Amino acid sequence: MEILGLEVPLWVSLTTIILSLLYWYGTSTFNTFKKMGVPYQPAYIPFVGHMIELMTTSMSDHQEKYAKKFPGKVYGMFQGRTPVLKVADAEPVVEEDSISDNSIVSTTSDHWKHVRTILAPTFTSGKLKQMYPVIQRCSQRFVKHLKSTEGAPIAIKDYASGYTMDVIASTAFGMDLDVQETTDHEFIYHAKKFFGLPTDDRIITRIKSFFNILSSFLLSKAIRNFLGLFVDMSFSGLETLNYLEGLAHAVLDQNKDQIERKNLDYSRFNQKGCDANAAIFISAGYETTASTLQFFFYLMAVHPDIQNKLYSSILEVADEKGECSYEELKKLEYLDWCIDETMRIFPIGTRLERVASRDITIKGVKIPKGMTINMSIYNMHRDSDYWTDPNTFNPDRFAPENQTDIQQYAFIPFGSGGRKCIASRLALLEMKVVIIKSLTEFRYEACADTPKLRELTFQDLAIGLLTPASPTCFCRTKRIRIICRLL
Ligand code: HEM
Q: 416 C-alpha vs ligand 1 centroid, how far in Å?
């Protein structure tokens, strides 16, 4: 082939054309934000965009860095060649009718709407009241196991994880397991694997949150092992609390015709329904609550005055065993503020993802249907435009007289809108129960190795959950002299 008078072999021409086309395709979205008039971080590597940076930086560091660079709170980046609009503005974006592909739960919109409708009544006051004694029993085990470590340094996260797994196992599955008996219980082992901490795994799991299809291959074995433990066991426990079994039956009934028509194996279908919903509940409910508890106890250890104030308020309501009735929990207002303030400083879900289901306008920016929008929760919760002295732990900012200062969407630890955390009330209940119980028994204290609040650094877990970077936090209780370590 002759080009500009030069003889060029055909294969060279074809390769050049293919590479040019690939380059064009791999970068063709990189001018999206320029066209929209939105400030953005330019990307140069075809198909990769900012993936390398996103995979190697923790989400919290990432959000902090770009908050400084883009003070307008709305900017663009590229996950691969997909343009993603980052929003750190307390706007009702999350209220938009949308689907959520990369958030904690990944299911299609229609399927999840159905699941959500069936599950929503599970978390009414009446149902939570039924769960209360079961949760109290789990909290007694938490305290018992913590007591048994007298004097020895402990990783509080291990105990908190055992507790939250125990609560899910008994409330969602009706199984009385006591996974707290040992910190390396099989369930915890598989859960840890699922939420993978080692660096290599982290990179894989980070990839997971960007490429859903790939992820199902990479994680499927870990998930299968983990879920298998739950689902292989009979669902024979506490009937009334076993809400996932009820859900599986409801899904089954709804699909009865289809199963009969296609002559499908009833039991396998049932198993599949349970697997899917078990996955949702374990992944969304276990690590989130355990990590929040971990941060809560850490904050108590480094703020002894606040811990004392909370302890005094607990004594007014709970008995000497750290127990009170379900109704009396309402009286523990200061506890509510302390938990809220913990979730403000340490929002476990650092970001929310939405896909615009129609053209919308946010802060004067026209966002086309189909664009991925990423809400930077971590950043909003620590933004000095919304919070006075945002890096200070101050539960009083949630006192009723100060609530008017809080902008509605500046505090969304459980998300907001149609996909808001379905079990936020259960999460709050299980945290309150174990906090009341354990603060009655123990006093958490910082020791020489405990990092200052402002020195804490983070690493992300599989699905971008906020986690301290290293096991450097210590706290101890006075009465039985326990040393705790944050993981
Ligand atoms: C402190 C504890 C928890 C925190 C901070 C938390 C936070 C969140 C957040 C940020 C979302 C995404 C909301 C959105 O996209 O707008 C979410 C969704 C969800 N959470 Fe939680 N969560 C917690 C505990 C739990 C527990 C204990 C369970 C179950 C037992 C649970 C089940 C779910 C489910 C099923 C969803 C998906 C809702 C949907 O997509 O419709 N979460 N959670």
A: 10
Closest atom, ligand 1, to C-alpha of 280? 35
CA distance 27 to 381: 34
Q: Can you read off the two tokens belonging to residue 359? A: 């053209």
CB 365 within 8 A of CB 335: no
State residue 479's pLDDT score. 53
Cβ 280 under 6 angstroms from ligand 1: yes
Q: What is the pTM of this model?
A: 0.83
Average pLDDT over residues 173-199: 60
Determine if residue 421 is labeled as part of a ligand binding site. Answer: yes
C-beta of 426 in contact with ligand 1 (< 6 A): yes
Separation between Cα atoms, residue 119 and residue 99, nearest integer Å: 18
Q: Is 6 exposed, middle or buried (0-12, 13-18, 19+ CB in 10 A)?
A: exposed
- Determine the residue of 414, 428, 461 to mutate for testing ligand 1's pocket, defined as the one with the most ligand atoms within 8 A of the Cβ atom: 414
Contact between 341 and 303 (Cβ < 8 Å)? no
Q: Is a pLDDT exceeding 90 seen at residue 245?
A: no
Give the chain's largest Cα–Cα span.
95
Count of beta carbons in the 10 Å neighbourhood of residue 457: 12
The tens digit of pLDDT for each residue in 334-366 reads 999 999 999 999 999 888 878 777 787 777 788
Nearest ligand 1 atom to alpha carbon 418:
41
Q: Please tell me if the CB atom of residue 412 comes closer than 6 angstroms to any atom of ligand 1.
A: no
Output the residue whose Cα is nearest ligand 1's atom 42.
285
Q: Is 94 in the pocket of ligand 1 (CB under 6 A)?
A: yes
On the question of pLDDT at 187 being above 50, the answer is yes
420 close to ligand 1 (CB < 6 Angstrom): yes
What are the phi and psi torsion angles at 60 (to 5°)? -65, -45
Ligand 1 pocket: which of 101, 421, 432 to mutate (most atoms within 8 A of CB): 421
- pLDDT above 70 for 301: yes
Quickly name the fold that domain 91-406+417-486 has.
Cytochrome p450 (1.10.630)
116 close to ligand 1 (CB < 6 Angstrom): yes
Helix (H, G, I), strand (E, B) or coil at 479: coil
131 CA to centre of own chain: 22
Q: Ligand 1 centroid to 105 CA: how many Å?
A: 8
Scan for tokens 């938490």, then name that residue.
142
Q: Is residue 94's pLDDT more than 70? A: no
Closest by CA position to 122, among listed 36, 31, 241: 241
Secondary structure letter of residue 138 according to DSSP: H
User: Which residue's CA lies nearest to atom 11 of ligand 1?
Assistant: 421
Residue 214 tokens read as 């790939």
Q: Write down the domain spans for the chain.
A: 91-406+417-486
Task: Quote the pLDDT of residue 130.
Answer: 87
